[in-house]
Each structure stands twice: as C-alpha cells, then as structure tokens.
Design a protein that fits this description.
Blueprint lengths: L7 H22 L2 H11 L3 H10 L5 H13 L4 H14 L4 H16 L3 H9 L9 H11 L3 H14 L6 H14 L3 H14 L6 H14 L3 H14 L4 H16 L31 E7 L4 E7 L6 E2 L7 E8 L2 H12 L5 E8 L2 E11 L2 H13 L5 E4 L1
Parallel strand pairs: 3-5
Antiparallel strand pairs: 1-2, 4-6, 4-7, 5-6
Helix pairs in contact: 2-3, 2-4, 4-5, 4-6, 5-6, 6-7, 7-8, 8-9, 8-10, 9-10, 10-11, 11-12, 12-13, 12-14, 13-14
Pfam family, one: SPOR
Keywords: TPR repeat
GO molecular function, one term: peptidoglycan binding
C-alpha cells in the first residue's frame, strides 16, 4: 500500500515557485539587448550586429558566452570561427551558447566534408531545444553509408518537429537512403508522406522531380512520367526543369512507347502553315523515294545534309518539320543526332522570348509538303513527334 504525502499541496506550491524562479533567473541572466542579437543575426543585419556587440558590456558568464557566440558567427575565416567556437565550449561548457557552438562546429565540418569530426561535435549536444541536430546527424550517417542510422535520426527529427525547418530535407534524406538500399518502393512511400504533410513553402517542382525518379527506379514509367510532367509544367525554364528533361529523355530511350509530347507545348501562333506549294521558289535539299520489294514496302530517304547542326537563326524559307523545343541546348543537340541517324537532315536554332531561351529542333528543308509528310511519318514510326511548318 502506497502512502500519500501529508503535504501534497505544499509540495506543488514549492515546485511551482522553484520552476518560476528558475525561468526568471535564466531570463535575467541575459539582458534584452543581448537577446536582441539573435534577431539581428537571423534577419541578416550583420553590420548592425557587429556594431551592437562592440558596445555591449557583459556582467555575467551567460552574457559573455552570448557575445562569444555571435563573435564566432561573424568570423570571416573558417579557422577563426572554429577557434572561437571551441574557446566558447571550453570556457562556458554549461551555457546554452556552448550547445549552439557545438551545432555550428558540426555544420562547419560537414561543409568541409570532415564527417567524423562533425559527428563527434553533434553527438555532444544534449539540449532538447536543438532538434535540428538530428537532421545533421542523419546527414553524417548518410555520408558514411550508414543508412539505417541516417533514417533513424531523420525520423527522430520529424517526430519532434514534423513541420520544422528541416522537415522537407529529412524526408528527402530518408528517401535517398532507401534508394541507396535499392528500396525504391519505400522511397516512393516516404515521398508520398512528404506530400501528405503539406509543409509550408515546399518546393513542389523539386518534389515531383524526386517523386518521378523514385517511380522510375520502381519500374513504374507511367507514374514517373506523370510526376515529371507535373514538375516540368510548373516552370519549364527552371534548373530543375532541365534536370526533369534529362530524366524524361533518358526514360524515353528505354521506353519508346511513352508519350512525352507535353515537352513541346506549341501554340498555333508559333507556326505559319502555307497552303499553296511554291516549288519554284524553294531549293530542295531532301528527296524521298518510296520503293517496293517483294517482301515489304519501306521508305528510303536520300539525304543531303547541307545545313550546320546549329543554325544561326530561324529558317526563312522552305517546308520544315518542327520536332522539339528544349530549355537545355544539349537536349536539342541530342535529338538532332537521333534524327540524323534516321537519315533525315536536322538542325536546331536558338529562340529567345523575353528573357527566356529555348532551342528548337527542325528537319528539312523539303521540296514540297508531300515530302515533308513522308518524313513526318518516318519520324512518327520512331516515336518522334513533329509537325509541318513553312517559312
């Protein structure tokens, strides 16, 4: 039988008084002008921060540790910053600022690819308020190919800060670990959890790029293309869109039946179709002959590639096929090479619309519209979409 304390109310009052006193002591240990240094640093006002530090006069160890921490953050040279943080940790080991310095040293050594040193400093952090250490410990474990530990640390971060600053990165790191372990389905599941988390300010284009790649490695090309398309269409001219293009074309090379026509969002205003043929004014550079054999009927194209691979400007005359528009020049060049292998002359030119550049792949020119149609059919049989235009 458990005996109850005869003074439960007294104990509760005393505990409440003690906790209140401790909170007041911690708050009073660092005056407001010292606490404001954190706001200046986080808002990027480094000149004002430096000026304030030079005028402040600390009266206790906590304020001295505070000044030491922000002085270390302002160091320009990495070596000086490391020395300043290490001095603070040794001088004020019980200070919350020493805990912050441990975190900063961990990040510095990660950037310098000194993963063992970074891990040692991060593991010394005991403050429950520094939750982000779990993400950085996960990153260190990932660098060391310790994927189980990396996943565990990132999951700890997500448990303690499900909508924190490093939540999105933690999901991606977990997905990376699963991909390294050849567990693509688990990577997809992790990324879908990220999508359902609805984090604020999530980079959706990058998310769909990562999701598409995970689907691709899961041997789900249709789902991969769907994800890539959602990402690509958010901003076709971004750096991530360029990466998405590369993945789409790589996937297309292994899965020719996949439809990637969304990469070429042409509008009717971009094309001038000439209804009347004017063969006398055009210089033929391609002839197409249809020949029959006893076994099959095939189309053969006799080519005279009399144009450079990259044109100086948009064609001005003749019948042409427009076969693609890319935001990466190398992708346009790659398609030109593939078309030339089909014995069809091809080239590309740079098109500028406002501040955005793209590279347009064209085939031709052809002596008349009928010949252009035959070449268009041949491209289609090789899963290359195109349309006829006349200049």
């Amino acid at each position: 039988m458990m005996l109850k304390s005869p003074f439960p109310a007294v104990k509760q009052v005393f505990l409440s008084f003690l906790l209140t006193g401790l909170c007041c002591f911690v708050f009073a240990a660092v005056r407001k002008e010292f606490q404001d240094l954190d706001k200046l640093y986080n808002s990027g006002k480094l000149d004002e921060l430096s000026a304030n530090i030079s005028t402040l006069k600390p009266v206790n160890d906590e304020e001295r540790a505070c000044l030491g921490f922000y002085n270390a953050l302002l160091k320009v040279k990495i070596e000086d910053a490391i020395s300043a943080h290490q001095w603070l940790i040794e001088k004020f080991p019980k200070s919350p600022y020493a805990q912050k310095s441990l975190l900063e040293l961990g990040k510095i050594f990660i950037l310098d690819r000194k993963i063992e040193e970074a891990t040692l400093y991060l593991r010394r952090i005991t403050s429950p308020e520094i939750i982000e250490r779990f993400y950085w410990l996960g990153l260190c474990a990932w660098w060391n190919d310790d994927y189980a530990t990396a996943i565990s640390n990132c999951e700890n971060y997500l448990r303690l800060a499900p909508r924190g600053e490093f939540a999105e990165k933690s999901y991606y790191l977990i997905a990376d670990c699963y991909l390294e372990q050849k567990k693509a389905y688990s990577a997809v599941a992790t990324l879908l959890k990220l999508q359902n988390a609805k984090l604020p300010e999530m980079d959706e284009q990058y998310f769909y790029y990562r999701l598409g790649y995970a689907y691709e490695l899961s041997d789900k090309p249709i789902d991969a293309i769907a994800a890539y398309r959602k990402g690509y269409e958010q901003d076709p001219y971004s750096q991530v869109a360029y990466q998405i293009e590369d993945r789409i074309l790589e996937l297309k090379s292994s899965k020719p039946s996949i439809d990637i026509s969304f990469l070429y969002p042409y509008s009717p205003l971009q094309v001038t179709i000439v209804q009347e043929e004017q063969p006398d004014t055009l210089k033929p550079s391609v002839t197409i002959d249809s020949k029959s054999s006893s076994s099959s009927s095939t189309k053969q194209i006799e080519v005279k590639q009399d144009t450079p691979v990259k044109l100086k400007e948009k064609p001005k005359e003749g019948y042409w096929l427009q076969a693609g528009r890319f935001s990466v020049e190398s992708n346009a060049n790659r398609l030109v090479i593939n078309i030339c292998l089909l014995n069809i002359p091809a080239a590309y030119y740079e098109d500028v619309s406002g501040e955005k550049k793209s590279w347009v792949v064209v085939c031709g020119s052809f002596p008349d519209r009928a010949k252009a149609e035959e070449a268009k059919e041949l491209l289609a049989t090789n899963n290359i979409n195109s349309f006829i235009t006349a200049y």
